[in-house]
Amino acid sequence: MEQNKKTLWIQIISLSLPLILSMAGVMIMQLVDAVFLAWYSTEAISAVVPAGMGAYLITCPFQATAGFTSTLVAHYIGAGKTKRAYSVTWQGIYCSLVSGFIVAGIGFWAEPFFKIVGHAESVQPLEVTYFSISCWGAFPVIAASAISGFFTGRGKTLIVMVVQLSGIALNAVIAYLLIFGKWFFPEWGITGAAIATVGSQIFVALLLFIAFMKTKTENCGNPWTDRKFDKELFTRLIHFGFPNGLRIGFEMLAWTSFVLIVGRIGVNELAATNIAFRINGFSFFPVIGIGMAVAILVGQAQGQCNFKQSIRITYTGFALAELWMLFSASIFLLFPSEIYSMFGGEGYTDFSQVKIIGEMLLKLIAVYCLLDAGNIIFVSALQAAGDTRWTMIFSFIANGFFLCALVLADIYKMGIWVEWVIATVFVMVVAFLWFFRFRSGKWHNIHVVETPAE
Q1: How far apart are the two ends of the chain, measured CA to CA in Å?
Q2: 405 has pLDDT over 80
Q3: Which of 1, 41, 258, 429 sits a CA distance of 20 to 30 A from 77?
Q4: What percent helix, strand, coil does the chain show, rounded to 5?
Q5: Does the pTM exceed 0.85?
Q6: How many CB atoms lie within 10 A of CB 228?
C-alpha cells in the first residue's frame, strides 16, 4: 500500500508538472500583460481584467464543452477503447467551429454591454476594444482546448506544455511591441495586447492540430480516416460537456460581476482588484494543472470502474495542491508591499492608494487560498467522473446566492471590503460543499462512455 501511495504521488506529479508549467506560463503571461498595461496607463489596467473576464465568460462554456474531449479520451483509454480517441477529438473540433461563430457574433454587442456596466468614461472604450477582439478570436481558443484533450486524456501532457509555453512566449513579445509601439510597430496600447493574445492562440491551435494529425498510436486508429461526424459521440460530448461548460460559465459570470461591481466604486479600487486577481493566478493556475492531472487519472480509473483508485487519486491530488496553496498564502502575507510595487509605473497617477488597497486584498486572498485547493481538486474529480449535471445545478444555486449578496452590497454602498469579504466566505463555503458531494459517492455509477453491453 505504501508503495502504491508513492507511485500515485509520482504519477500525479509527473502528469501535472507539464500542466503546472503551462498554467504558470499563463500566469506569467497575464502578469506581464498587466505590468505592461499598468506601465501604459491606469485606464488600460482598469479595463483589461473586466473586458478579459467578460470575453472569457462568453467563451468558457463552449471551451469547456469542447475540452471535455479530455475526459472522454481518458475514459476510453481506461476502458481499452483507444481507437475512439481520434473520433472524440474531431467531434470537439466540430463543436469548436460552431462555438467560435457564436462567440464572434457576440463580440459586436460589446459597446451597449459596457455602457450598462457603467465604468468610467475613460475606461469604457478600452473595455469594448479588448472584449470585441477577444470574442472575434475565440475559435482558436476553443479548438485548442478540444485538441489538447486528445493529448491530456492519454496522459501525454508534455507536448501540451511545449506548445502552450511557445504561444505564451510569442504573446509576451508581440504584446510588448504592440502596446508600446517599439521598433517599427504601431503603438496600440490595449488593442495591441488583445491582438497579441489572439495571435498567440492561433499559433497554439495550429501547432496542436499539426501534432494531432501526425500522431500515429498503435490500436488508436488514424486521425484523418476517423474525421467523420459521429452523431452518437457528438451527442455524448454535448450531454456531459455542456453542463460542465455551463457550470464554469456561471462561475465566471459571478466573478466577472464581482469585478464589474467593484469597478463601480472607483478606478483605484478596480485597479487594485484587477492586480489582485492577476497575483492570485500565482496560487490558482498551478493548482488547475494538478486538478487536470487528477481528472486524467480519475477518468482512466473510472473507465476501468475502479472507484477506490479514483478516491485515492483525488485525495493525493488534494494534499499536493494544499501544500502549494499554503506556500502561496504565506508569500501573500509576508510580502504584500513588495508584490504590489512591481505594478507601479508612470501610467499611474495615484498608485500609492492602489497599493494600500491591494495589500489588504492580498491578505483576504491568503485566507481563501487555504480552501481553494478543495474547490479545484474535488470539482475536477467530479467532472472527470461525469457528475456534470449535479455540479452544474449546485453551481447555479451557490453562485446565485453570491451574486445576490454582491448586488445588495452594491445597492447599499457597503464598499470594497464588504464585497471582498463576501467573495472570501463564498470560496470557503463552496469548497466544503464540493467535498461533501465527493464523499457521498453518488458519482460512482455514472457511465461517461459506452458500457461493455452497449
Answers
A1: 35
A2: yes
A3: 1
A4: 80, 0, 20
A5: no
A6: 8
What mean pLDDT value characterizes the chain? Answer: 87
Q: Which amino acid is at 410?
A: D
Residue 251: C-alpha distances to residues 126, 246, 321 (Å)? 24, 8, 21
Residue found by looking up cell 502528469 in the block: 15
- Tens-place pLDDT, residues 259-278: 888 888 888 888 888 888 87
Let me know: does 391 contact 383? Beta carbons within 8 Å: yes
Q: How far is CA 75 from CA 69, 156, 250, 339, in A?
A: 10, 15, 26, 42
pLDDT in tens, 41-97: 878 877 887 888 788 888 989 999 999 999 999 999 888 888 888 999 999 999 999
Contact 79, 301 (CB under 8 A): no
> CB-hemisphere CA count at 13 Å for 389?
8
Residue type, 391: T
- Mean pLDDT, rounded, for 106-125: 83
Nearest to 275 by CA among 324, 345, 323: 345
Closest CA relative to residue 444, chosen from 317, 314, 321: 314
Q: CA 332 to CA 282: how far, in whole Å?
A: 10
Burial label for 421, CB within 10 Å (0-12, 13-18, 19+), is middle
